Amino acid sequence: MGIPSDDVVVFQKAKRPGEASVITVNCPDKTGLGCDICRIILDFGLCIRKADFSTDGIWCYVVLWVVPHSNSTKVKWSNLENQLLSVCPSCSVPYYFYPQTTCSSPPAVYLLKFLCSDRNGLLHDVTEILSDLELSIQRVKVTTTPDDRVLDLFFITDNMDLLHTKERQDKTLKQLRAVLGESCTSCELQLVGPEYDPHHGIPSLSPVVAEELFRCELLDKEIRSQALSPDMTKLKNANVTIDNSLSPAHTLLQIHCADHKGLLYDIMRTLKDSNIKIAYGRFSPTTKGYRDLDLFIQQKDGKKIQDPEEQSALCLSLKVEMLHPLRVIIANRGPDTELLVANPVELSGKGRPLVFYDVTLALKALRICIFSAEIGRISASDREWEVYSFLLEENSKFQLSNMVAKNQIVDRVRRTLMGW
Which residue among 37, 102, 239, 361 is least packed, with the fewest CB closer than 10 Å? Predict the structure, then answer.
C-alpha cells in the first residue's frame, strides 16, 4: 500500500519568466492538509495562480500553478519539496492505519542577539537574511540605545532543522555580520532554555486600541486608521454562498472576492480551524482583481452542513478573513507613535508567514526608522492573535503627529502585506 516518496511531491518548473510552475502533491489525506500546503507556498514567496484538489477521504491529489510574488524571489525547490513532504501523511505505511492527526515535538528555539549601529532598513535587511536562510522568526525584541545603537533579540526556529550544527550556525552568523557591517560589535547565536515562553504577550493594549484592532467588521462610516482607503473598498464585495442541492453527500461552498497575497491560505486556515473537510475544489485565476473558489465540503462527521446557523457562522468567518486578514492601525503609546499589525493564529499555534518581513520592507521603503519592535501573542474576540508592535521615529517626510501621514503609512504597510 502507499506510493513511493519520490512521487508524493512533483515539480514542473516554468521554462520562461512569467510562466507558472506546477506543483503536484499526491498523498494520503488528512483534515487541514490544504491549509498546511498553502502556508508553505506562502512562506516560500510564491503566489498560487490557480489550483485543483480532490480527495476520496483517503487519498488526495493537489495541483497548484504558482509564480513568485517578486521578481527577486529565488525558489529553493529542494527545500520546498522537503517542507511539503513534512506535512504530507506518511506514504511508507498502509494508509488505513494513518491517524488524522500527528504528534510532533515543537522545533528548537534559538536566540540570535547582536549589537550594532542603527540605520534605515537595518531590521528588514536582517529579516531578509533570516528568510533566505529559512529561519522563522518567533519573537523579536528590538531596542535603540541613546547613542543610536540597536540591541536586537530574535527568537528563531530552523525550517531545515539544522541549526544545532556548527556549519549551519557559522553560515548564519557569517551572512548576518556581512549585513550588519563593521559597526557590529557583538553577534551571538545560542539555544534557549526552558524559560522561553512561546506565548509571550505584548504590552497591554488600551481598550480603545484593542477594540479597533480586533473588531470583527469595518463600517462604511469608519474614519479611524483601520479604515479602508477608497480604492480598497472592493474588499467589501466578498460573496460567500452555500448550496446543498447539487450533491447528495457534499455542501457546495462558493466564494467570490478580491484577490490578495495568501488568499487561499486564509480560506483554508478558516476551514481547517472549523474542522471542515474538502472533497473537491477549484481555485480560478484572477479576473479583474477578483477570484472564484468552488469547494465541495463536509463537516468532520462526514455530513453536509444543513443547520442554517452553522452555515451563517461559516460564511461570516470567511467574509471577515477576506475583508481584512491582517489588521493594521497606528496608535499613540504615551509620547510615542506605535504601528500595530495583527493576524489570527491557527488553532495549531502557527502564525502567518512573512508578516514581519513585509512590514519592515514597507517601512524601509518609506525610510521610516524603527525605534523598537516586538512580537507577541494575545487572546481577543475568542481567538489568539499574533501582534507586531513597532515604535516609529519621525522623519522630514512623515510627521507622525499628522493624520494624513499616519494614514499613508498604514496604507503602504497594508498594501505590502496584501501583495498589492
Answer: 102
